[in-house]
Amino acid sequence: MDMNCAASGRVAIVTGASSGIGWELGRQLAAAGWRVGLLARRADQLQSLADLIRADGGTAAFAAADVGDRTAVEQAISALRAALGPVDLMIANAGVGYPTLLDPINVGEIEETFRVNVMGVIYSFNAV
C-alpha cells in the first residue's frame, strides 16, 4: 500500500493500534502525512504511540475501545472523527487468536475470536 498517495491532511483510523502491526501502521501513516486515529483497548499504549507521532511532527488522536463492543466502537470512532475530521481510510487491524480445543471445547475463546475478528471489522466499518 502506498501510504503517501495524497495523504496530506487525510484521516486514517487504525484499530489494534496499541501494538504490533497496528502500532507500526499508525506510525507509518503519520510519517506519510496522514492524520491518524488510533483505536485499541489499551489506552496507555495508545497514548505512548500518539505522543511518539506528535514528537515526530505528526497528528494523532486516540480512543480506547474493544472492537467487539459495537457501542464502544461507535463512540470511539465518533470521538476520533470529532478530533481529526472525516475518515478517509479505515484499517480494521485488531484481532485475536486462540487454538481451538476439543476436550473441552473452548467455546468462550471461539466466541471472542468471532466477536473481535469478524464483528469488530463490521462494527468498525459501520461506524465510519
Task: Explain briefly what this protein structure is.
This protein is 48% helix and 16% strand. By secondary structure, the protein is of the alpha/beta class.
Describe the structure.
With 128 residues, the protein is α/β, with parallel strands linked by helices. 48% of the residues lie in helices and 16% in strands. It is elongated, with a radius of gyration of 15 Å. The model has no long low-confidence stretch (mean pLDDT 94).
The strand order across the widest sheet is 3-2-1-4
How many individual helices? 4
Q: What does the largest sheet look like?
A: 4 strands, parallel
Mean pLDDT: 94
Q: Are there runs of 5+ residues with pLDDT below 50, and where? A: none
The string of secondary-structure elements, in order, is: EHEHEHEH
Percentage beta strand:
15-25%
State the separation between the terminal residues, measured CA to CA.
Answer: 20 Å
Which percent range fits the helix content?
A: 40-55%
Number of strands: 4
Shape: elongated
Structural class: alpha/beta
Work out the oligomeric state of the chains in this entry. Answer: single chain
Radius of gyration: 15 Å
Notable traits:
single chain, 128 residues, alpha/beta, four-stranded parallel beta sheet, 4 helices, 4 strands, 16% strand, elongated
Topology:
Layout: E1 11-15, H1 20-31, E2 35-40, H2 43-55, E3 59-64, H3 70-84, E4 89-91, H4 107-127
Parallel strand pairs: 1-2, 1-4, 2-3
